[in-house]
Each structure stands twice: as C-alpha cells, then as structure tokens.
Amino acid sequence: MNTQRNFLFRGVSGAMFRLPDMFFACLPAGQLAKFVLCGVLLLPAFAQTKAGTPGSGADSSITVDFARGAKTGLKPVHGVTNGPLCYEGRIDLSERFREIGVPYVRLHDTDGPNSRYLVDISRIFPDFDADENDPASYYFTTTDRLLQAIAQTGAQTIYRLGESIDPGPEGRFARPPKDFEKWARICLNVIRHYNDGWANGFHLNIRYWEIWNEPDNCLDEVSSMWRGGTMEQVCRLYETAAVMIKAWDENLRVGGMAFSGYNQAVCQFVEYCAARRLPLDFISFHWYFRHVEALSVVAGQFDALLEKHGYGAAERIFDEWNYLGHEALYEEVKDTLWGAWNNPLLARDISMYQKNRVGASFVTAAMIYMNDLPIDIATYYDAQTVSRFCGLFDSFGNPHKTFYGFKAYGELYRRGLERVEAESRSRGLHVIANRHTVLISNYLGESRHYDIVLKGLGPGRKKVEICVLNDELDLEPFRTEYYHGDEVRQTCLIENYSVILIKLSQETDVCSASL
Would you say the pTM of this structure is higher than 0.70? Predict the structure, then answer.
C-alpha cells in the first residue's frame, strides 16, 4: 500500500513548502521517521529564501563571496602545545591529533609539572658537568618516542630549548646555565640527534628551535622561569645559542623567547639583537584573554617592534594562549588567570568554561580572528591530559567541546587554504571561509536569527552539509541542503556560544539532482 508522503514545512520567513515524492524515493530504508523528525525540528533554523528577501532584517549579518579572494590565505593557527603521548605514553591521542589536523606542536611543560624525562635540557642532559660530546651523557629515549609520534600525526615540531616552569621553592632547573657556551653545545647536540642522526638519532627535519621560555616572567629570585637571572643574561644566552645553531645549519629557524606579553624586556631583547645583527627568524609570545579583539593590540605591538628594528621578515609565533575567564568570573580573577591559582573553586569554574561550549566558541573565534592579525603560527596551551589548562581532553583522553572547535577549524583548513571574502556585521559573530567551506563562531553574540548571504556560488547545484557545535551536538551534521543559483540567502538561528561549519560540494548525484 502506498503512503502519502508529501509533508508540509514552514520556514522562518513563514512560507510553506512541500517535499515531493521523488525525495523520499532517494531516502534510505528506515530513515523516513528520522527525516520527518529532523525536518520538523531543524528546518525552521535554516530557511532558504530568495536573495534580497531577508528573513530577519534589511541588512545581512554575514556575507561570503566565493568569487572574491581574501588578501591572505588560511593560517596554521590550530597548533597545540605538547604532543599526543600523555602520562609518559600511557595515553595516545594520535588519532585525535589527526582528526584535528594539528599543523604544529610546540613542546613546553611536557608531561609537567612532574616529568623528569622529557624535552628539557636538564632532562635530556641530567648532569651538567658531564662530557657534552659523549652520547652516553644524554637520555633521549622518552623524548625520541614523543617526537616520532608527533611526526607520525603529520604535525611539525617547535622544539623549545630550555626548561619547563619550575615553581618549586628550590627552583633547580629554570635558572641561567652556569656555562652559556656549554649549554649551547648541548642544545646543538640535541638538534644533531633529531635532525642529523647523531647518537643513534633521527632525520626528523625539525625546523623551529625556540630558545627558552618566558625569561621576562618575574626576573627575580622567586621567578619560576629565570630564577636569579637578569635580562642581560637572557640576551647573552640567546646570542650564544642562536649564533652557534645558525653556524651549524643556516636553514634552521631560530628564535624566541616565548615572552609572557609585550613589555620592556621584549623591547630590550629585540634592540639587543638588532644592535648585534643577530639571527632572529621568529619571535614568540604568549597571551591569555577573553575578548578576542584584545589580541590585536598585543600582536600589533610585537609587529611594530620587529618592523622598527629591521626584523620585518621574522615570523610571529603565538605559541601559548587560552581562555582567560568567563564574564561572570572576570572581576574575581582581577585581570589575570593566575589570580585564581589559590582559589580552588574559582580555578575549577574557569577550567569548566575552557572545556564547554563557551571555550569551544572562544577558541574558534580566536583562530578565525588570528587570520587577520600579524600572526603566522599559533599553538594553544595545552593539549595534554595532565594539564589543568587543557580544554581539549579530559584526564582519560576523551574530547571536550573545545576539541570540536579545533576540529572545525582543521576541517576548514583541510578543505583549502585559499580564503574568500567573508564579513560579519554583528557583534560577537566571527566568520571565515574558503572556496568550499564557511566557519562561523558566535562568541559573546546574541542567540537569534541571522541572515547569511552566500554569493559567487557559480553554476549548478551545490550540496551543502551544515554541522553544528553546541550543547547537544559535537560538530555533527545538522542537516543537508541543496543550493541553486549564484546567490543564496539563509536565515539561520545561531545560538550564543555555538559554532557552525558549512561544507559545500558540487552536486553530481542523479537522485539528489532530481529535487
């Protein structure tokens, strides 16, 4: 017996429309009930109307023009700090890294704060008085496994030569080395081990070698990164190591020094490098924030400083960043994430926001925004399960909401690096697009219907898959549509703290083309 299957739907614009029987002939067996449910619930959120007939207002909230290229291509800003092996390899996140398409992994605080086996010079060369030319003086084994795992995910490594944070009362490790020349030779042997096969090593072709981390962070006897040292020593250490490394292989990218923000120490360092014409292939810096737009100030300061002193060609690497705190918590943390360090309840709440849909929409909006800033590479702090600042995974390696924000940007990046023009006219709504994909993040914007105009679609039918990240969905397909014509206007309900990924492809399926 035939069943009448012409269902009526009402779009946001109020128009009624009917799906023909031809559609249901294409629907897989057993999926009819599921489609009806999705149609009733989802179609009102994504109603296609004629171009120039807005559903919610006279002006579009978002416009994407696929026929017009943007000034820059997509940037690899979805990198992370630390690799896929956590708890000294007991948890392997390699498949998750591939799912994101992580482009860069920066190594710092690796398996910290308690590891004594990984990455740091004091871990690899534990006895500073030993012979630095003797392979037996080095312990590479654990770091070998980590770097091989990173390479197998397809990511490139940014290797920080120096020490992880050392907040203990003794401050044994994050201090100025007692012999800068010897320390530089040890660093060079680490490079030789991983790039040139020295000491039964590898040929991993690691290009980026970052010297030290946050030496500007409290230059005093209680500092957790440069205890008892001076800025003059910082500059001399950089000079000693950078000159030696570039003399060994001028094709390596050498830079630093992972500054905690823009400050006088940064200016002193760049001025020192310029005065001595030192190699500075990149400068690296950190920043924690909650308003995405605030990043433009810091990035602009670093950019202007480099240009002023003749380092305009140097790369800008933003290799530590995260969510500062929710609106409701911000006054309590007193402008700094570290204000919550001694308040366990507040620290827990901030960590919660880093992991949920708020954090997911924040990181997505931030990565979108970085594409228009003087930032070449970015690595989020942190991707390892042992870190309290990891918004991506729980302690067992299961993904949080923020992981899917990275996955959304990774999908955009994977589908083509050529950006097209994309503009948002609504506060809190961030958008970026390439020729096959549109990524939208509603961070700090209203929950309401927005008009999205897609121009320059070209001839033929387009199959459009809409994926949503919110409380209920983890970047899962929300619905599939078919666009016709060169320009289409969508009226979409976009919740605050949500992410939408729109994937377009040329429709060739005969059955679908019959609609």
Answer: yes
